[in-house]
Amino acid sequence: xxxxxxxxxxxxxxQAEVQSWDYVLSYVLPSCIKCAIELGIPDVLHxxxxxxxxxxxxxxxxxxxxxxxxxxxxxxxxILVHSGxxxxxxxxxxxxxxxxxxxxxxxxxxxxxxxxxLFAEHPxxxxxxxxxxxxxxxxxxxxxxxxxxxxxxxxCAEEPEFSGFFDNAMTSDSRLISNLLISxxxxxxxxxxxxxxxxxxxxxTVAMAIANAFPSLKSIVLDLPHVIGDRKGTGNLEFIAGSxxxxxxxxxxxxxxxxxxxWSDQDCVKLxxxxxxxxxxxxxxxxxxxxxxVMEDNNSNGSNLFKHNT
Length: 310
Ligand SMILES: C[S@@+](CC[C@H](N)C(=O)[O-])C[C@H]1O[C@@H](n2cnc3c(N)ncnc32)[C@H](O)[C@@H]1O
Prior knowledge:
alpha/beta; three-stranded antiparallel beta sheet; 15 helices; binds S-adenosylmethionine; methyltransferase; S-adenosyl-L-methionine; transferase; COMT_dimerisation; WH_DNA-bd_sf
C-alpha cells in the first residue's frame, strides 16, 4: 500500500519522466520543420487557391514525395500543427492552413526565416553542437574547430555549399533588421553620416538598405574574399574584400551586426580598436553601431531566448 510520501515521490518521478522525454525528443521539431520545408509543404499550402487545403490535396501536390510514404504525412502535420506552424481544420475534412509563424517558412516571404532553419539543421552545424563537451575538454578556441578541424570562416572559404547556407541564413535575418534600421524609430542613427562601413557585412543586405534609404551616405561592405566574390557595388554602395583585423576603410561610422559574439574578448578589443582607428578624429558624429543577439533567461518555452540588442 502506498503512503502519502510515496504518492508525492511518484508524482515527482512521473513529472520528471515527462519532462525528460521533452528533452530527449526536442530534436524532433527542428527536423520536422526542415523536412516540411524540403518537401515544399508551406509553399504548397500558400499557393493553394483555397486557404484551407485538404490532406489528400496536399499529399497529391507535394512534388518530391514518394507515394509509398504518403501515409506518414499526417504524423508530420500533427507535430507541426501542435507546434503552431500550421492550423488544422477538422470541420473542413482534415484541412490545413498556414499560421503566422508558418508563413516565415515560405520561400518568397520577404521576412522568410526558411534559410535559418535549414542552416541550423545542416549536418555541419549539428556536428558542431554535439562537439561542445569535447571542446570544453580540449584547447581549441571554438567548438567548430573541435568538430571540423578548422575555423568556421576557413571552412566556409573551402566549402561553398555550406558557405551558401550560412550566408543565406544571415541574409534572411538582415532583411528584417534592415527594415527596422531604416524605419522612423531607428533612422535617426544614420542621419548626418556621410560614410559607413558594414564590417563583416556578409552579402550586403543591410548596407544596401542603408544606401538606398540615405542616398548621400556612402555604404561600404567589408567581408572576407569568399563572401564578397565578384559582387559589385552601384552608386553609393561599395564591396571590399579583406580582413577586418588587417584594415578597415575610413568612414565616419562603423556597423557591426552579429560580429562580436563570434570572437574572443581579446579579438573584440583588437577589432574595436581597429574600428575606432578607421574613424578619422576630425570626423564629427563618428560612431560604432553594434547590433548583437543576446540570450534572455525568461523561463519561457525558448521562443524568446534570442533577441536583438542594439
Ligand atoms: C555572423 S556573420 C554576420 C554577417 C552580417 N553582419 C549579418 O548580420 O547578416 C559574420 C560575418 O563576418 C565575416 N567575417 C569573419 N571573419 C572576418 C574577417 N576577418 N574580416 C571580415 N569579415 C569577416 C563572415 O564572413 C560573416 O559574413
